[in-house]
Queue: 3 jobs
Job 1
Amino acid sequence: MSDALRGAILRGEFLPGERLVEAQLMTRFAASRFNVRAALQDLSAEGLVETQRNRGAQVRKVSLDEAVEITEVRMVVEGLIAARAAERIDTERASELDEIALLMRRAVESGEYRRYSDLNQRLHALIREIAGHRTADRIVGTLRGQLVRHQFVLSLLPGRPQQSLPQHERIITAIRDGDPKVAEEAMRDHIASVIEALRSIDQLGGPA
């Protein structure tokens, strides 16, 4: 039940601030009240859901200030993951990275920015898989979940894919070369640029 509700929130099927009514969730997910409440507690612990007195549970809103703080933590943890991936890379996984890099470049060149955003998610997931660092993977999964709405807005920023593509290519090259130091540095530089982009949304009057 927790996985199903988490997936629905991350896909944007429930919006920030939207109430999560137990009876409706029971019907939608064919779950018992006990399982629904347990799922809400799990997602509350992850920061995806918040429970307010007399109002029940709702999808938690994340302000831009908090989104920046969360991304600063991501920068450190994902840098560690990239370094670990560079230490563990093999020929098969290097080929997978090459394929994603090629598809990302084609997506940018053809203006398929939604596809580029999907490939971006796939790349970061593959790097976490290569790294095999379960604790860091769990932390990043929680942090990224809280940022789903802001990540969607970022993906639509004019010029963002063209800016991030060479950053992703640098990360991929460093991991393929088996260079943990450069891989970590490249990942941290990439996520630092995400923080700059988030701040630019704030200046443009983006979502609070």
Job 2
Amino acid sequence: MMQAVTLTLSDEIFAFPTRILHEILEPVPVTRVPRAGSFATGLINVRGTVVPLTDLRVAFGMTSRPPDEHTRMLVLDVPVAGAETTVAVIADRVLDVTELDDAAVGEIPEVGMRWPPEFLSGIARTDQGFVIVPDLARIYAAALSEDSADFSFEKDPSSCV
């Protein structure tokens, strides 16, 4: 069983393991980074620590939408360039904390996927429908890749403050 926090991005349900979750914030001021791409749009201050703010909708080819009263920022520890790094992720809405049965997390189909399969760890079947379990290590590796035109992620975000 995996304890996970579920959230929505563009009306799709995603799940992150709670073991990587630091906290969930209401939107805070964002310092925009010059020449930043659409994936890592800026930096936020989390209890005195500079944290890059990222938008997973970019990685999944989803349309962005303006923040509303349900928008949240999840502060996570994710593997970035071989080290655990604290990042913030925008969520349209945080749903709840639930347990996902490992047996319910299935393989990623090769056909008919609208999400990049290389960015998925699996898809869980639940009573509410399908829950996407992203592969955050691969998403952030692609963001750091010099070959990636779709992402822009500062390797040293503190140098931009």
Job 3
Amino acid sequence: MNKLNIDFEKVDGLVPAIIQDADTNKVLMLGYMNQEAIDITLETKKVTFFSRTKNRLWTKGETSGNFLHVASLTVDCDNDTILIKAKPVGPVCHTGDDTCFAEENKSKTFFIDELRAIIKDRKNNPTDKSYTASLFAKGINKVAQKVGEEAVEIVIEAKDDNKELFMGEAADLLYHYLVLLEAKGYELDEVMEVLIDRHQKK
């Protein structure tokens, strides 16, 4: 049963599947799938392709152990291309590279967008157990005060050589800064626009 409404007839029974890192948004590789490969992928939560050269199904990582664990699977607007967001275990390419396009896949900054979404949800759907919700409940002055406190603490830690403590304060400052932006009703993208505009004027 074609549960995803994929138009296999348009592409001779195989559709391209773009694999994207669920955490970094980096494109990892491209493969092809038939209905059986999709069914197995959905059942096992490990990306499985149809190999056109070997004329058989193969699960990515079946020999290397570098599996691609599925986070989500969507179909494009023409119903003939799949986008799979996955969490890779080890290098994706057989050459040992992070991706099949010889790109590094190290950045974790994409998580900021996920964190922003969580913060927004805590503001719109507060719960008693949420520290973030409690900050919003205390008002803008308290949120701004917390940003100031964390800024002072990171300055203090910057003078020492304890990386663990410094990184902890850095994380605290970034988190509270994002809470402050949400409390003000501003988007991080607006801050990025200011930085981009300044850069372009140089």
